[in-house]
C-alpha cells in the first residue's frame, strides 16, 4: 500500500501535489501564483499592481551595438594617444589587468591614436567623433556615459551580462523583466519585440538574449523579421480560414483549462495566452510592419536605407511605429562592431549604417511628442583597447576587447540631455571618475520606468531573484532630469 502511494504521488506534478495540500502553505503559495498569472493573462497589467514611483518613461528602445564599439573612435576623445602613437602601453596604466588571448601574447602593445577628428558639441561641450555627425547635432538630447564598466572580457558573457544581468545564460532578459512586471499597453501586439539588422553576421546572437530564463515563457521577446512573414508561423496553414482557426482555438483552450484544473501547471496559461496573441497578431502585425504609408520626408529623415527591409534604418523606423502602438520594450541588434583589425574602414561602415537612423529616431520621437516618455539607449557590451591588436601602421590598426571602460548614451524618458557623465584616464584605459557598473545601468533603466530594482522580484530556487542580482546596485542619479 505504501508503494502504491509512492507510485501515485510520483505521477503528480509538484504544483498538483501542492494544490492537493489545500489549506497548507504550499497551496496558498500556488494560489497566489495562479492568481498573479491569471491577472496578467486577463488584462494588460503585469505582476506589479502599480509602479513604485511615478515613471518618467513608458517604453524603451534599446539600440544594441553588438561587438563592442570603440569608445576611442566615437565618444571618448584622447589626444594623448595621438601624441604617443606607437609607444608602448605603460605598465603603470595597465596595472597588471587581464588581456584576452588574442592580444595578451603580443610581443608589444603599441598605443594607437584615433585616425578621426573630434569636436565639441552642445551646451556641455561633449566630444563627439566626426564619424557621428548626425548624433553630434543632438548632443543636447543625450546623456553620454563615458565610464561604463563590465566584468566580462569576451563577447558571449559580456552581451549576456548586459542583456540579462548575469554572465551565465539562463536568466530573464531586461525586456522579459519589464513585460512580467509592467504588462502590456496593447493586447494585440507583444510587449517585447526584437529587431535584428539583416545580413550583418559577425558575433552570433542567441534567442536566449531576449528569453525569459526562469520567468514564464510568455514574457519572452518576439522577433520580427524582414520580409512577407515578419513573425514565423503566424499565418494560417493553406486551407484554414480565420473562422476555422477561431473554432480550433476555442476547443483547444477548453482542453487546456481541463488540464490546468487537473495539474495546476501554470505554463498552460502561457500556451493559451500565446495562441490567443498569435490570433490577434494576424491582424495587428501586417498593419504595424507595413511602412508604405509613411511620408517621403520620414524616409529621407532615416536615410537611404530606410526603404530596405531589415536594415538598421528600417528597423529604427519600425521601432518608432511599434512604440506608437504601445510596445513597451523594443530591442534592436546591430552586429559588426568587433574590429580586431581593419578598424578604420570597419567603423566607418558601422557609423554610416547607424548614425543617421539613430539620430532620426530621436528627432522623429520628439516631433511626435514621444521622446519625453520614451527611453532610448545606444551602446554595446564593452569597449576597445587603447593599444593596437596586431600590426600598427600609419593607416590601419585594430583594437581588442576592453571591459574596463566604454561609452554609451541614453536619451528621452527622464534622462537629462546635454550631460556627460564619468571620465577615463588620459590614456583611455581606466575610469578615474564616476564609474557605472552594469548593475547600476540596469537599476537606472528600471528607475526611469517607475520600478525600484530591489522590489521587482520573482521567486526562483528559494530566492527573490531580480535583474540586478544580489550585489548592491545604485541608480545613476546625475543623468536623471
How would you explain this protein's 3D organization?
- This protein has 481 residues and is of the alpha/beta class.
- It has one domain (51-386, 403-472): Alkaline Phosphatase, subunit A (3-Layer(aba) Sandwich), CATH 3.40.720.10.
- Helices cover 35% and strands 14% of the residues.
- The chain is built from 14 helices and 17 strands.
- It has helices at 2-10, 14-21, 25-42, 79-83, 91-94, 133-136, 155-164, 174-182, 242-263, 267-289, 296-302, 312-324, 343-367, 438-448, and strands at 59-65, 118-121, 126-129, 142-149, 192-196, 222-224, 329-334, 374-379, 383-384, 401-402, 406-411, 419-421, 423-424, 431-433, 436-437, 458-460, 463-465.
- The strands form 5 sheets. Strands 1, 4, 5, 6, 7, 8, 11, 12 and 15 form a 9-stranded mixed sheet that branches. Strands 2-3 form a two-stranded antiparallel sheet. Strands 9-10 form a two-stranded antiparallel sheet.
- Strand 2 (118-121) and strand 3 form a beta hairpin.
- Helix 2 packs across helix 3.
- The N and C termini lie far apart (69 Å).
Amino acid at each position: 500500500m505504501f508503494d502504491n502511494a509512492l507510485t501515485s504521488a510520483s505521477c503528480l506534478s509538484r504544483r498538483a501535489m501542492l494544490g492537493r495540500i489545500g489549506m497548507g502553505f504550499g497551496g496558498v503559495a500556488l494560489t497566489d501564483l495562479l492568481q498573479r498569472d491569471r491577472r496578467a493573462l486577463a488584462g494588460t497589467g503585469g505582476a506589479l499592481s502599480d509602479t513604485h514611483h511615478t515613471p518618467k518613461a513608458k517604453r524603451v528602445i534599446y539600440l544594441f551595438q553588438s561587438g563592442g564599439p570603440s569608445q576611442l573612435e566615437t565618444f571618448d576623445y584622447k589626444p594623448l594617444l595621438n601624441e604617443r602613437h606607437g609607444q608602448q602601453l605603460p605598465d603603470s596604466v595597465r596595472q597588471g589587468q587581464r588581456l584576452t588571448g588574442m592580444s595578451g601574447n603580443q610581443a608589444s602593445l603599441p598605443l594607437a591614436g584615433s585616425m578621426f577628428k573630434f569636436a565639441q558639441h552642445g551646451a556641455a561641450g561633449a566630444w563627439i567623433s566626426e564619424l557621428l555627425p548626425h548624433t553630434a547635432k543632438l548632443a543636447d538630447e543625450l546623456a553620454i556615459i563615458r565610464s561604463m564598466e563590465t566584468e566580462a572580457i569576451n563577447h558571449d558573457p559580456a552581451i549576456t551580462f548586459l542583456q540579462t544581468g548575469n554572465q551565465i545564460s539562463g536568466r530573464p532578459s531586461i525586456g522579459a523583466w519589464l513585460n512580467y512586471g509592467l504588462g502590456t499597453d496593447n493586447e494585440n501586439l507583444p510587449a517585447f519585440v526584437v529587431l535584428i539588422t539583416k545580413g550583418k553576421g559577425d558575433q552570433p546572437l542567441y534567442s536566449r538574449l531576449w528569453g525569459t530564463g526562469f520567468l514564464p515563457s510568455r514574457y519572452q521577446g518576439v522577433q520580427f523579421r524582414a520580409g512577407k512573414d515578419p513573425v514565423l508561423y503566424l499565418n494560417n496553414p493553406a486551407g484554414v480560414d480565420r473562422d476555422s482557426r477561431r473554432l480550433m482555438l476555442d476547443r483547444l483552450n477548453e482542453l487546456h483549462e481541463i488540464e490546468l484544473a487537473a495539474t495546476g501547471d501554470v505554463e498552460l496559461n502561457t500556451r493559451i495566452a500565446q495562441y490567443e496573441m498569435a490570433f490577434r497578431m494576424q491582424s495587428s502585425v501586417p498593419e504595424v510592419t507595413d511602412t508604405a504609408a509613411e511620408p517621403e520626408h520620414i524616409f529621407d529623415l532615416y536615410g537611404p536605407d530606410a526603404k530596405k527591409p531589415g536594415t538598421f534604418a528600417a528597423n529604427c523606423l519600425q521601432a518608432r511605429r511599434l512604440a506608437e502602438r504601445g510596445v513597451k520594450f523594443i530591442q534592436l541588434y546591430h552586429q559588426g562592431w568587433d574590429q580586431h583589425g581593419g578598424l578604420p574602414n570597419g567603423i566607418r561602415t558601422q557609423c554610416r549604417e547607424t548614425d543617421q537612423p539613430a539620430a532620426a529616431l530621436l528627432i522623429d520621437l520628439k516631433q511626435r511628442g514621444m521622446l519625453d516618455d520614451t527611453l532610448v539607449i545606444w551602446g554595446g557590451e564593452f569597449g576597445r583597447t587603447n593599444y593596437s591588436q596586431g600590426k600598427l601602421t600609419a593607416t590601419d590598426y585594430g583594437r581588442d576587447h576592453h571591459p574596463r571602460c566604454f561609452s554609451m548614451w541614453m536619451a528621452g524618458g527622464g534622462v537629462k540631455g546635454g550631460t556627460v557623465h564619468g571620465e577615463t584616464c588620459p590614456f583611455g584605459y581606466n575610469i578615474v571618475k564616476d564609474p557605472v557598473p552594469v548593475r547600476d545601468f540596469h537599476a537606472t533603466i528600471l528607475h526611469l520606468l517607475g520600478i525600484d530594482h530591489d522590489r521587482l522580484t520573482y521567486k526562483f530556487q528559494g530566492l527573490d531573484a531580480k535583474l540586478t542580482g544580489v550585489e548592491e546596485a545604485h541608480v545613476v542619479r546625475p543623468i536623471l532630469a
